[in-house]
Description:
Blueprint: E1 7-12, H1 15-26, E2 29-34, E3 37-42, E4 45-51, E5 76-80, H2 84-93, E6 103-104, E7 108-114, E8 120-126
Parallel strand pairs: 1-4, 5-8
Antiparallel strand pairs: 2-3, 3-4, 6-7, 7-8
Amino acid sequence: MDVAAVTHILVVTDPARSADWWTTTLGATVFRGYGSSVVLDLRGTWLLLVTGGGPTADKPGVTFAPPAEPDRVGHALTLRVTDCRAAYEELRGKGVEFLTPPHDWGAEIRCFLRDPDGHLVELSEAR
């Protein structure tokens, strides 16, 4: 198998609102939109924002939905940053709420935030 790219699918309630958040808050760029979906490029990583929906012929029995319980995580994105504390302050200045301030674990400094639909995003500075 020859993998050309990896795309993370985020199920959101409002793709336009989410695209705005990901672009203005975290610097993603809109690659394209189709139907109600939006494809973002976040530093070479593809994010596909889609609305929820029921099973289809290629995924029978599978329903797409935004996180029902934000404190139960099955998927998260990690953004490696050069200065976690500076990124934290910059994003707080944009109104982003964090779970906690950056925590120093010795080998890394990290903190977590959520997108408008509750998807968990980690900021991590490796030391």
